[in-house]
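User: Please fill in residues for this 259-position structure.
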C-alpha cells in the first residue's frame, strides 16, 4: 500500500477546512454578532488543537499574525454586490407598472443572503504618509486593497511579489510551455465539464499555483488575503470581525475605482 503525499495546496486546504470543527465553547463571536472589546477568541481553543494554528504559522510565518491583527482591528469589509432586479429595470421604462416596494425588498434580501461575497476591501494597518495624510479628509485612514477570494488576488504589492518571486522571474521569464502542463491542469483550464460553483473550495481558488503539474510549488498569499480566507472559512469564530456592506453594481464599481 503506497501513500500519496499531498501537495502543499492540498495540505493547507485540509488544514483550513478543519478549523471550523475545532471546539470553541462559549464563543463570543458569530457571523452576525460583533466581538466584544478586548476578547480574544483564539484563547478559547483547547490546547490540544492549537498545533493546527502553529502549523499554519510555520507555513506562513510572516503572514498569519498580521492577518489576525487586521481582523482584530476590523479593517476588512465584505462587499456584496446586489444582483440586478428585473422589476427595477422594467420600472425605468416608460409606462411600466411597478411592484410594491416591500415585495422588491424582500426578494432582494433573499437573493443577497444566497449570494457569496463578491470581494473584500481591506484597509492597511500601516499609517499613511504625512504628506498624503494632510490631503486626506480622514487622517487615520491608510491605503486600501481589493481582495478577491475566487480569483485569488489582492491588489497589494506583497501579493504581487509573492506571486512572481525573483528566482522565478530569472529562471522562467514568464514563458509558458504547453508541454509542461499536465492533462489534469489543462482540463482545469479549458475543460467544459468543470463547474466553478460545484467545485470544492481550495486554498488558491481558481489559480493554478500549487496544483499538480503546474510547476509552482506553493500558493502565493498576503496578510490581506489570508485574513479574508480565515474570516470566510472560519466564520463561526472570526466572521464577526468583518463588516458587511451590500451595494449595487454602480456603487461597487465606484468603491474599486476609488482604491
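Assistant: Residues filled in for all 259 positions:
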Amino acid at each position: 500500500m503506497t501513500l500519496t503525499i499531498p501537495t502543499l495546496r492540498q495540505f493547507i486546504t485540509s488544514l483550513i477546512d478543519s478549523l471550523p470543527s475545532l471546539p470553541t465553547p462559549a464563543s463570543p463571536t458569530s457571523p452576525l454578532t460583533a466581538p466584544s472589546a478586548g476578547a480574544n477568541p483564539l484563547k478559547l481553543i483547547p490546547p490540544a488543537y492549537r498545533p493546527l494554528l502553529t502549523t499554519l504559522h510555520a507555513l506562513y510565518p510572516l503572514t498569519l499574525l498580521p492577518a489576525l491583527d487586521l481582523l482584530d482591528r476590523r479593517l476588512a469589509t465584505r462587499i456584496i454586490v446586489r444582483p440586478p432586479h428585473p422589476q427595477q429595470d422594467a420600472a425605468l421604462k416608460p409606462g411600466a407598472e411597478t411592484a410594491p416596494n416591500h415585495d422588491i425588498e424582500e426578494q432582494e434580501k433573499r437573493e443577497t443572503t444566497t449570494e457569496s461575497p463578491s470581494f473584500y476591501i481591506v484597509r492597511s494597518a500601516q499609517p499613511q504618509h504625512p504628506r498624503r495624510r494632510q490631503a486626506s479628509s480622514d487622517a487615520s485612514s491608510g491605503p486600501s486593497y481589493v481582495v478577491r477570494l475566487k480569483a485569488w488576488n489582492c491588489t497589494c504589492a506583497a501579493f504581487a511579489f509573492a506571486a512572481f518571486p525573483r528566482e522565478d522571474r530569472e529562471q522562467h521569464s514568464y514563458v509558458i510551455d504547453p508541454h509542461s502542463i499536465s492533462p489534469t491542469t489543462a482540463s482545469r483550464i479549458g475543460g467544459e465539464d468543470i463547474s466553478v460553483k460545484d467545485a470544492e473550495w481550495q486554498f488558491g481558488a481558481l489559480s493554478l499555483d500549487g496544483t499538480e503539474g503546474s510547476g509552482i510549488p506553493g500558493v502565493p498569499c498576503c496578510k490581506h488575503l489570508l485574513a479574508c480566507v480565515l474570516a470566510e472559512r472560519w466564520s463561526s469564530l472570526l466572521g464577526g470581525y468583518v463588516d458587511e456592506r451590500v451595494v449595487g453594481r454602480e456603487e461597487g464599481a465606484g468603491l474599486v475605482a476609488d482604491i
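For context: Confidence is low (pLDDT under 50) at residues 173-181, 185-198.
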